[in-house]
Design brief:
3 domains; Arc Repressor Mutant, subunit A; mainly alpha
């Protein structure tokens, strides 16, 4: 259930309402896509984390997933097992750690994620390309402060 930010009327309200609306829109998108993929919220969040790490050029590891999802190693391993069993991720030997394993999306899950999110990512890239450096610094500072208020231990 979405709980909107309940604020007194004032000059900051439209911006905070917009942040709340953005959150709801993102939740609806994630619900639609994870329902199509037959994944629960935690498994879908884990899959998107693995995908995001790959896109940034770094493999994902179970230990990082435990930190990101704030769950136990056993729970993260169970999630990876489910995602692997469903064909969404694969495990590979970690070249930097003989005992460790990395987690990567499969070609088919990467294609599915690209299909569902690729157009949105492209539009967002185009949108933020028009933001000048000063405006970007102000927006980043504001968004980081909002994040810190919502989740001080992020």
């Amino acid at each position: 259930m979405d709980v909107p930010i309940d604020l007194e009327p004032g000059p900051a309200r439209p911006l905070l309402v917009a942040i709340d609306e953005l959150d709801r829109a993102e939740r609806r998108l994630r619900l639609r896509v994870r329902t199509e993929m037959h994944l629960n919220n935690t498994d879908f969040t884990a899959l998107l984390y693995v995908d995001r790490r790959e896109r940034r050029g770094a493999p994902a590891r179970v230990g990082e997933l435990t930190d990101y999802l704030a769950i136990s190693t056993a729970a993260a391993t169970t999630i990876v097992n489910r995602l692997s069993g469903a064909g969404y991720v694969e495990r590979f030997a970690d070249p930097g750690d003989g005992r460790g394993r990395t987690i990567r999306t499969t070609d088919s899950s990467r294609a599915l994620i690209d299909d569902r999110f690729g157009g949105i990512r492209a539009e967002l890239d185009d949108l933020v390309a028009g933001v000048d450096d000063v405006e970007e610094e102000r927006l980043l500072a504001l968004l980081h402060r909002v994040r810190d208020i919502i989740s001080p231990l992020h």
